[in-house]
Design a protein that fits this description.
Number of helices: 12
Shape: globular
Low-confidence stretches: none
Radius of gyration: 20 Å
Helix content: 40-55%
Strand content: 15-25%
């Protein structure tokens, strides 16, 4: 991992693609080797997928607005762009299995493979999973991945992909056993829902109306509203606004941008319109929310 040279709203760590000489988009990192980075930027985002295995200790781990107390045997999942922070003092031992989406998608034909995993689904039930019941098998896979990376050769990519694939499927199986509703959410989904979620994640700062997303999917706004309502319990417009609100809260909490600047970043017509939008959804003004967030 390495700090991005870009200037996002939060410090972002990028994948160190040439760490082993040749480009390799998967890595296994001891948590003790990460702690020096966490000390500099306790709150940060990643540009890649991360699966953190807790082996010793008990402490907090936060992903976006969800806060977990993790213990030995817990696993935390995070996707690119999610806000993370964790207790480097109390979490004493563990590993982070990290990889770029490209590492799998350059081989698999399914562009939504990762999003179809229950724990990487945008509407997932939880970012935490306890794997105590399957610890030996997972530990064995971690050891195999570590060994392959340790004497990596470009021709070994397929074996590493196979090991990662096995790990992802085993964790997905366990996740749906511990969180049965996650499977129901998947069944209710469709290619339109998956694509809509991905589009909103990418474009909600710029495009706030349902018509845009329906157009991108080549369906009518009414049809889009219907399938989103059936799957998520809210219409498409509400989902877009909820995601836009999350972006606003991130900017208010983790940056020093003025209210006017945030309104511009989020493509509101004016700061007064942004303030009205924020108040309607939170019963608070952006400034009051920011001051309260800074005191937490």
């Amino acid at each position: 991992m390495k700090l991005s040279t870009m200037k996002p709203a939060l410090p972002q760590y990028d994948f160190f693609r040439t760490k082993y000489g040749e480009e390799l988009l998967i890595d296994l990192i001891d948590l003790n080797d990460i702690k020096k980075y966490i000390e500099i930027h306790p709150v940060h985002t990643l540009s890649y997928f991360d699966i953190t295995f807790i082996e010793e200790g008990r402490g907090f781990f936060s992903v976006n607005d969800k806060h977990y107390t993790v213990i030995e045997g817990d696993v935390i999942f995070s996707m690119p762009g999610e806000i993370r922070s964790w207790d480097k003092n109390q979490i004493q031992k563990g590993y982070a299995l990290i990889f770029e989406e490209e590492f799998l998608l350059s081989f698999f034909n399914d562009p939504l493979f990762l999003q179809h995993l229950s724990y990487f689904y945008p509407q997932r039930t939880s970012a935490r999973l306890n794997i105590s019941g399957m610890q030996p098998r997972i530990t064995n896979l971690i050891q195999q991945i570590s060994a392959e990376i340790g004497h990596y050769h470009p021709n070994d990519k397929h074996l590493l992909r196979a090991l990662l694939y096995e790990m992802l499927i085993l964790l997905d199986r366990e996740y749906t056993m511990q969180y049965p509703l996650a499977k129901d959410i998947h069944v209710a989904g469709s290619r339109y829902i998956d694509s809509f979620i991905a589009l909103v994640k990418a474009d909600c700062k710029t495009f706030h109306d349902t018509t845009y997303y329906a157009g991108q999917l080549c369906i009518t706004p009414n049809y889009l509203n219907g399938i989103i309502k059936k799957s998520m319990g809210i219409n498409a417009k509400s989902y877009i606004q909820n995601q836009l609100l999350l972006e606003a809260k991130k900017l208010l909490t983790y940056t020093n941008h003025s209210i006017d600047e945030i309104a511009e970043i989020l493509y509101f017509e004016s700061s007064s319109y942004f303030i009205r939008f924020f108040r309607n959804h939170t019963n608070s003004t952006p400034l009051i929310y920011r001051n309260a967030a800074k005191q937490r």
